[in-house]
Amino acid sequence: MYPFVLALAVALLMTIARPAPAGWQDDLAAEIRAAHGCSVAYLTQIVERTLDGRQVIFAKVHCEDGRVFDASRTSALEPFAFKECPTGREPQAC
Rounded distance, CA 71 to CA 16, Å? Predict the structure, then answer.
């Protein structure tokens, strides 16, 4: 009986510890594809905050074609704003 209880406890803890997928990442990918033709390769410098009950998101978007954008959204009810980083500079300098 104890091995079953232990296995159940471990499974429960793994489920609780695993972060839920961020739905905003899907929104960001769809919006930047529509606005700039960017297929997202990966995101860096992600900042998620709750400010006055609003979800605020900042992220650096790296496109498959090498372009880099700063993305921000100050409310889950608004679209993302994108600012393309200049080429020839380090993406962090954007």
Answer: 29
User: What are the average pLDDT values for consecutive 10-residue runs of the chain, which has 94 residues?
Assistant: 45 43 88 98 97 95 97 96 83 60
Residue type, 75: S
How many Å separate Cα 43 from the centre of its chain? 6
With residues binned 3-state (H G I as helix, E B as strand, rest as coil), the percentages for the chain, rounded to 5, are: 35, 35, 30
The model carries a pTM of 0.71
Token output for 80: 């993302």
State the Cα–Cα distance between residues 60 and 94, nearest whole angstrom.
Answer: 9
The CA distance from 94 to 83, in Å, is: 9
Q: What is the DSSP string of 20-55?
A: PP-HHHHHHHHHHHHHH-PPEEEEEEEEEEEETTEE
